[in-house]
Recover the amino acids of this structure.
């Protein structure tokens, strides 16, 4: 599937509010993005300093009917292995800080993480054990269009892909292993086969399912993928569109700050 080019078209209707914010898909280790176009043109673009997301900000007064984004994507499978000689001590201290969704300082998380890790120092073993604990501790359910925090996951134990990811990220953060959320969409299974058959297809939101997973930063700065909700460890198939990395964003628009949980589907904002 890594040789298949797919055309994707998103339309965002004009709704009540003052601003429309969304993240532009970029070329990365999951995908190549080409021929990207936005209608209307002349929109404001800004960069997320932490993860490098390209964020589009539109004033809705300047939009007549809808906002449209068109692009072509070449999907790529992504696979990484962990050097068996890596130790937990290969990381510097305090790589990432807690936020509203991921918190390695929560005492319940600390107790779980320390219990799972024990005296183990091999990095691959630690990551695998925390992943397996997450798989066994949580049950998939209650999918939401937003993002569940680690707290929802630890208290209810039934959560969706986002909750699996924020919970595991919190466990990793406790033992000083850095990670980040990967946000985007799964291409629905029936359309994956059609893309393979016809080699070119036009997709819209109707053929995509919102999804999130995790990446662990290894000591060599490469990213190791983990999708705990679908049992993917180190390997991600070529069936997903990535729109952004990270969560819990603060975006400044015309001297006002706006807090956004994640950059997946378009976000409509009203002036503060």
């Amino acid at each position: 599937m890594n040789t298949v080019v797919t055309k994707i078209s998103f339309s965002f209707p004009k709704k009540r509010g003052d601003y429309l914010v969304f993240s532009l898909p970029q070329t990365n280790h999951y995908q190549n993005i080409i021929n990207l176009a936005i209608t209307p043109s002349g929109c404001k673009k800004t960069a997320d300093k932490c993860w490098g997301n390209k964020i589009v900000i539109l004033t809705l007064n300047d939009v007549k009917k809808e906002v449209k984004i068109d692009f072509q994507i070449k999907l790529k499978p992504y696979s990484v292995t962990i050097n068996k000689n890596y130790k937990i001590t290969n990381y510097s201290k305090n790589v990432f800080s807690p936020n509203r969704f991921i918190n390695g300082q929560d005492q319940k998380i600390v107790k779980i993480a320390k219990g799972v890790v024990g005296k183990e120092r091999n990095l691959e073993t630690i990551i695998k054990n925390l992943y397996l604990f997450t798989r066994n501790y949580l049950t998939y359910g209650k999918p939401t269009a937003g993002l569940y925090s680690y707290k929802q996951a630890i208290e209810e134990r039934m959560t969706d892909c986002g909750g699996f990811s924020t919970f595991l990220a919190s466990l990793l953060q406790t033992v000083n292993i850095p990670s980040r959320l990967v946000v985007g969409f799964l291409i629905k299974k029936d359309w994956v086969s059609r893309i393979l058959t016809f080699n070119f297809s036009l997709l819209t939101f109707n053929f995509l399912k919102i999804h999130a997973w995790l990446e662990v930063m290894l000591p060599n700065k490469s990213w190791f993928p983990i999708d705990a909700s679908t049992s993917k460890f180190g390997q991600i198939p070529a069936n997903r569109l990535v729109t952004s990395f990270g969560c819990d964003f603060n975006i400044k628009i015309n001297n006002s700050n706006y807090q956004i949980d994640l950059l997946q589907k378009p976000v409509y904002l009203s002036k503060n």
Summary: The chain has two domains: 5-77+249-269, 79-187+207-245.
